[in-house]
């Protein structure tokens, strides 16, 4: 599969497994899973034929590991879901986890005034997404231009009672990050 097709498939999967499953007539279960055969059939019926081999390739090589597959659901065929970032109501059923002392958030300069005033909020997603290292946060922040990387005092947040969870692809999730736990590059 060439790189252009892999990007197309990844974007298609993200759109329908995170944001608009109804657009192709699929229903995610309470935890975001859908049978792979159902997804492939719906994609073909809606003008985006996709093979199981292409899907498996994108799941395996996606640098952000955006998708998870499981083959062990009793009474169901193989399942797929987005690892995080849903704007549709799903419960990923991720257990609380103790975060490292610091996590990171990549953003862009235009967002800094709002972040300084309100902290980090989940916006359209269910949770705020945090990266385990500066490099990942820099890549995330660069999607919209020049990145700004904020440090999050996750250890202090955890001690203050904030709950963290970690997705299958290593993205840390929390409901919000109050300003007092943020370190800005110029501070």
From TrEMBL:
<dbReference type="Pfam" id="PF01885">
    <property type="entry name" value="PTS_2-RNA"/>
</dbReference>
<dbReference type="GO" id="GO:0003950">
    <property type="term" value="F:NAD+ poly-ADP-ribosyltransferase activity"/>
</dbReference>
<dbReference type="InterPro" id="IPR042080">
    <property type="entry name" value="RNA_2'-PTrans_N"/>
</dbReference>
<protein>
    <recommendedName>
        <fullName>Probable RNA 2'-phosphotransferase</fullName>
        <ecNumber>2.7.1.-</ecNumber>
    </recommendedName>
</protein>
<dbReference type="GO" id="GO:0006388">
    <property type="term" value="P:tRNA splicing, via endonucleolytic cleavage and ligation"/>
</dbReference>
<dbReference type="InterPro" id="IPR002745">
    <property type="entry name" value="Ptrans_KptA/Tpt1"/>
</dbReference>
<dbReference type="GO" id="GO:0000215">
    <property type="term" value="F:tRNA 2'-phosphotransferase activity"/>
</dbReference>
<dbReference type="InterPro" id="IPR042081">
    <property type="entry name" value="RNA_2'-PTrans_C"/>
</dbReference>
<keyword id="KW-0520">NAD</keyword>
<comment type="function">
    <text>Removes the 2'-phosphate from RNA via an intermediate in which the phosphate is ADP-ribosylated by NAD followed by a presumed transesterification to release the RNA and generate ADP-ribose 1''-2''-cyclic phosphate (APPR&gt;P). May function as an ADP-ribosylase.</text>
</comment>
<dbReference type="InterPro" id="IPR022928">
    <property type="entry name" value="RNA_2'-PTrans_KptA"/>
</dbReference>
<comment type="similarity">
    <text>Belongs to the KptA/TPT1 family.</text>
</comment>
<keyword id="KW-0808">Transferase</keyword>
């Amino acid at each position: 599969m060439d790189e252009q097709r892999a990007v197309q498939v990844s974007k298609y999967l993200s759109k329908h497994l995170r944001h608009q499953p109804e657009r192709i007539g699929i229903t995610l279960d309470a935890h975001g899973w859908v049978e792979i055969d159902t997804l492939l059939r719906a994609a073909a019926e809606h003008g985006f034929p996709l093979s199981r081999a292409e899907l498996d390739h994108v799941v395996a090589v996606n640098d952000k590991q955006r998708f998870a597959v499981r083959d062990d659901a009793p009474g169901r065929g193989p399942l797929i879901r987005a690892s995080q970032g849903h704007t549709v109501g799903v419960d990923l059923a991720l257990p609380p986890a103790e975060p490292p002392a610091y996590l990171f958030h990549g953003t862009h300069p235009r967002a800094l005034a709002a972040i300084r005033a309100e902290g980090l909020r989940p916006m359209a997603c269910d949770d705020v997404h945090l990266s385990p290292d500066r490099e990942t946060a820099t890549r995330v922040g660069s999607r919209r231009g020049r990145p700004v990387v904020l440090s999050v005092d996750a250890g202090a947040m955890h001690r203050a009672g904030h709950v963290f969870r970690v997705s299958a692809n290593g993205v840390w999730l929390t409901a919000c990050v109050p300003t007092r736990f943020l370190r800005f590059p110029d501070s």
